[in-house]
Amino acid sequence: MLKQRHPVFFELPAGLSTGNQLSPANPDDARFQTRSLWSNLKDYWPHRQPRRKVARLAGLLPRPGFHDLGMESRRAERFLAWPNLLDTNFGRRRPAAGYTRRFCRSGKQLISTFSCCLALSLPAEAAQLTDLHFTGYIRTGVGGNSKGGTQSCFQLPGAHSKYRLGNECEQWSELALEQGIKFTDGSTLSAMVMGGFYNPYGHTPKFKDSNEHGGGRSRIQQMFIKWANMPILNGGNFWLGRRYYKRNDIHMTDFYYWNQSATGFGIDEVPIGYLRYSYVFSRKDNYDQEPYINRHDFNVAGFKTNPGGEVEVGLSYIQKPDSSNSHNGWAISAQHKQLDVLGTGTNTFALQYGRGPGTGLGYTGDPTLGESNKSWRLVEHMVWQITPRFSGQLQVVYQKDIRTDGDDQRWLSTGIRPIYAFTEHFKLQGEIGRDQIKAPDGTRKLTKFTIAPTWAFGGMDFWARPELRLYYTYASWNKAAQRAADVSHPDTALSSTGEFGTDRHGSNFGVQFEYWWK
Questions:
Q1: What letter does residue 150 receive in the DSSP assignment?
Q2: Virtual torsion, Cα 199, 201, 205, 210, nearest 10 deg
Q3: Distance from C-alpha of 243 to C-alpha of 260, rounded to nearest angstrom
Q4: What pTM did the predictor assign?
Q5: pLDDT tens digit sequence for 153-176
Q6: Contact 195, 174 (CB under 8 A)
Q7: CB 478 within 8 A of CB 445
Q8: What's the rounded Cα separation, in Å, for the pair 313 and 381?
Q9: 10 Å Cβ neighbour count for 6?
């Protein structure tokens, strides 16, 4: 008599049939059916080793090193559970879950393993694989300066950003793959991986860490899973891993003033009433962060203020890390976004305030800063598209930092980038930006101007890409800016040891290509 055992639930890929229900008293039929299924499995999984793992999960083959005269009977017993799989649903607990986890534990091939695990754990009629998405961003070019050397970019010491047009001195690309599975309840479980590749001008394009001073690098920018539109979260989402998240930025300066990208997990945009709630726990939220720190971000969005206008508020709490001379910190942010401004444009206004490590505002700040250290910031930026031909962007940023050691500073940044499209595929872009920092060592000033004839392959819209730009950039700065650069950023454009020497002005020229796709 066969020993009673828990059935092993296993879903065959679409197209493989379990046949008729068998009786344990008929081992000859069991042998025939198991061998037939093994033959069909060969057609679905042509590679021998993965096929054998799948077969072991199903009970068609014994575990390695297991031999028993009653093996065929046990196979037949396991076989009894298969026809009942058509009556199971996704929410039912399956005794085979442990086998599936062990089978999917290897991370050699993220996307293929992810899809395989889904195929093994879900009935074919209950879910459907989504298309594989390839997305990315590419920025590349070449440039020189008025002194005959490589292009050297202009950024004021102490400023959190610089004006980008004709003022980027690197090649940068992000390439991503994403695939998921959509369930009959409307939710989608997906996996995404993205690589980032950086290399500065004037260096061999190796895109990897090396001993070369100022050389390039490559890293995993994103690698996470996301379960979107979950019924249990009322249509909200859950994610786990390293990802870009709630990146509020100003395009013309690449300034991410409120950015919750991190390595951690999050519950995202859960609707309750007319509001949407989010929470993120993270350990690391920027490339240079040391040490690892527990950070909690709470966001509430959906406050309707006027037609086309909405407010979002957020609180960040940063726990004291396990290191000497460290402190807790916090920051609050509030942002109003208005649609349909000056045509089809948008206007964004934000206020931020933080203490201790929360003085990083958009990021985790210095954990050695105590509660008496504080920062606040005002951000105003707008994109306009007044006519199909005339578009642009402007920004105003003001930030005040108060430090107990007396190293206070006030940063003011104002700039504008108007764009006019003469034809569907030709634009003329201009950009002027001014940064000023009032610090204990004096008031630093930098003014930068760029003109850029542009071939716009994507059309006349402000956000249309790809674009190919020719550019000329001129900048001037004062003695206080040069002194600060000599101390904190030697050999950069503004320092007396940089490309322009003791001059306090300089220019760059070059060509740049930019493209993003989704």
A1: B
A2: -60
A3: 9
A4: 0.77
A5: 999 999 999 999 999 999 999 999
A6: yes
A7: yes
A8: 18
A9: 9
